[in-house]
Write a structure and sequence with these properties.
InterPro entries: AosR. The chain is mainly alpha-helical. It contains seven helices and three strands. A three-stranded antiparallel β-sheet has the order 1-2-3. It is globular, with a radius of gyration of 18 Å.
């Protein structure tokens, strides 16, 4: 298992070494997030004039149905449905695009670092090196991945005893281990950049 992110001694870059399994898992989670973000009506058509797309404020006005998307795009004005709808219409599509690009950055960096399409070598390791800007993108995306998984699992503050009581072979326990691992990566990345 990866030891997390650390700052390179001579540069401002942060580095981490992942096993092929870990890198592939991270790529898969990021790809699933991209798919979820693009699988709703809030996503604007991609084959449009760039100026038209820039000036288009026809985004969604209602809260997403999917609980993960509701968590990633919370209602801005709980007491004012009209203001909340207007805020969502002007911001959600752009926010979705940004989150999708950030998750895509994780995928790109892992593949550029040597992660093959189908990792077959068990002892393959992937060395990732991030500059400051890319590290910040990874931080944002790790937050999104962790929020998504935590929402799916219905993780709540103070429920650690429940999760630790589950047998290791329980799929929920395995998913919770991934949730904690994402938190570990996030924490070590924040410490390395600070």
């Amino acid at each position: 298992m990866t030891s997390g992110f650390v700052r390179h001694r001579r540069s401002k870059r942060v580095i981490a070494t992942f096993s092929a399994f870990e890198a592939d898992l991270l790529r898969s989670l990021a790809a699933q997030l991209v798919e979820l973000l693009h699988n709703e009506s809030a996503v604007a058509a991609t084959e449009r004039d760039p100026l038209e797309a820039l000036l288009d404020f026809s985004g969604p006005t209602t809260e997403p149905e999917d609980p993960v998307l509701r968590r990633l795009f919370p209602t801005a004005y709980r007491e004012d449905a009209e203001a909340a709808g207007e805020f969502r219409r002007y911001t959600e599509s752009t926010l979705r695009d940004g989150k999708s690009r950030a998750a895509g950055t994780i995928i790109d960096v892992l593949e550029e670092a040597g992660l093959p399409g189908e990792p077959t070598e068990e002892d393959l390791v992937i060395d990732v090196e991030l500059d400051q800007e890319t590290a910040l993108v990874w931080m944002r995306s790790l937050t999104d991945l962790r929020l998504a998984l935590g929402t799916r699992l219905e993780v709540e503050e103070g429920d650690e005893d429940y999760w630790y009581a589950l047998p290791d072979e329980d799929p929920r326990a395995q998913a919770h281990h991934i949730y904690e691992w994402l938190g570990f990566l996030q924490e070590t990345l924040v410490q390395s950049v600070s």
